[in-house]
Amino acid sequence: MLTPELLYALRNLPLAARQAAEGFLAGAHASRRHGAGMEFSQYRPYQPGDDLRRLDWRLAARSDRYYLRESEVDTSLVVNLVLDASASMNHRDDNGLTKLDYARLLLASLAYLAQKQGDAVGLTMLSPSGLQHYPARADTRQLPRLYHALEAAEATGTFPDTATLAPLTARRQRALTVCVSDLYEEAGEINHLLARLRATSGDVLLLHLVAGNELNFSHKGPLTFRDLETGQTIQLNADEQRAAYQQQLRQWLRDTAQAARQQGLDYHQLSTADPLDGALREFLKRRQLMS
């Protein structure tokens, strides 16, 4: 299984996305099912209550048996990928990857996987300067568009305000929205956006990204920490503060997960030290439930 640092070392986002995703395609939920569509698939015996218009009368005349023509109905979805591109995503883990680096790999892999499932996939990147939005499409040129956008993405400033985010939830559209964020906010702005996305799209998979060195607090000795979004600094001894920090972090993570699930979000915590398989599995699971 490829680690995120090995994927990143390829320096080729399309190749990394394909390598990460293809191992999950086998056994994944197909994007088509049998039903009363236009493309013929197979026959099945007539059962009481079936629509008589779907009977194959020619076959009945030849065989004296009644069969229905089964066809395939496209159950492709609209998948909207949302990237938190605020400055806190520049936090770097001990493996050399920033949260933004990991998010690029993850979203590119999800875009590849969604297109392989026959879904229309789009991308929105959130930054204080505005929304960079690529509407969901299923054409073959969409993946290169999204790869290019992700490769050029930069994490800057604070999470955008409500007015900037308004176009993202201005229209109701049944979709699977996948949001990747570290959930660092000042006054509940991310939480408010997720609630609006839940109301307008119906299904939201929240991938909460935490750096490995945030989880284990691997820092040592006296250090100065700087907030990547506000620039504020604090001096402390990492060895002395480790236990208290980890206790508070565990409580925050529990509270965050509970609050997200109470809002009806499908919440999944990720570490930048972990392979991408957990997130890809959650995506396929959520997609199967929607199809």
TrEMBL record:
Annotated InterPro entries: DUF58, vWFA_dom_sf
Gene3D superfamilies noted in UniProt: von Willebrand factor, type A domain
Domain DUF58: 42-250
Residue runs in coiled coils: none
Highest taxon of source: Bacteria
Pfam families in UniProt: DUF58
PANTHER family: BLL2464 PROTEIN, DUF58 DOMAIN-CONTAINING PROTEIN
Name listed for the protein in its UniProt record: DUF58 domain-containing protein
